[in-house]
Write a structure and sequence with these properties.
Elements: H1 2-11, E1 18-26, E2 32-39, H2 44-59, E3 72-80
Antiparallel strand pairs: 1-2, 1-3
Amino acid sequence: MIQRMGLLRQNLPVGVKGSLQVRVSVMPGGIVNQIAIDRSSGNTSLDQLALQAVKQAAAQMEAPAVLRGSAFVIDVPLEFGD
């Protein structure tokens, strides 16, 4: 996931700042059910770039074995700028 965030930073226009939170809902069995902006940065472009990066990262990750039998939510806080 860290590599995806690096790619996100590379795609940001110069001077773009903001913080947001992405919520990842995972079903029992480790299948991602939903990925959505939980708290917006107020910048639609930044929100969409972050959402895309988290979706791409989540598609390549596997839930830890201890969590696979339960539904769970992960909140991913992100901050960009100086």
